[in-house]
Write a structure and sequence with these properties.
With 133 residues, the chain is α/β, with parallel strands linked by helices. It contains 5 helices and 5 strands, in the order βαβαβαβαβα. It has a single domain, classed as Rossmann fold (3-Layer(aba) Sandwich). The chain has a 5-stranded parallel sheet, with helices on both faces. The N and C termini lie far apart (30 Å).
């Protein structure tokens, strides 16, 4: 699987890349803002996106809204300092699948990624059972 890291912080991209490597995700693309992230998503095979909220040019919320409006359902985990409940709700309404508040531990991020993929797998299994044969 390929992952995409969308944040203007090079240090955060390094941290997230290291955590993804520990999960066995070795193919990691990077983008410094939402616009660049949308361009990188044109590369096939991206199966996970980690995005920050606060970035120049196009913030993470605009990035997610644009992504979802284009019909892209790639799992997105927002990793941000925005901890206000209203912001979290806004992000989920925009289409994020998971939310992690900075600072975080590697264990927290790994757990959230696994939770997101677990929910997606459960929905997929439920959908397959409900579909007529």
């Amino acid at each position: 699987m390929k992952a995409l890291l969308v944040t203007d912080s090079m240090a955060m991209r390094r941290i997230e890349r290291h955590i993804l490597l520990r999960l066995g995700i070795k193919d990691v693309l990077e983008a410094g803002d939402g616009r660049e992230g949308l361009e990188k998503l044109k590369i096939r095979g991206v199966g996970l996106v980690l995005t920050d909220w606060n970035m120049p040019k196009m913030n993470g919320l605009e990035f997610v809204k644009t992504l979802r409006a284009a019909g892209n359902n790639v799992p997105v985990v927002m990793v941000t300092r925005e901890s206000d409940k209203a912001r979290v709700i806004e992000a989920f309404r925009a289409g994020v699948n998971g939310y992690v508040v900075k600072p975080f531990t590697p264990k927290t991020l790994v757990s959230k990624i696994k939770e997101v993929f677990g929910r997606i797998a459960a929905v997929g299994a439920h959908t397959r059972k409900a579909a007529p044969h």
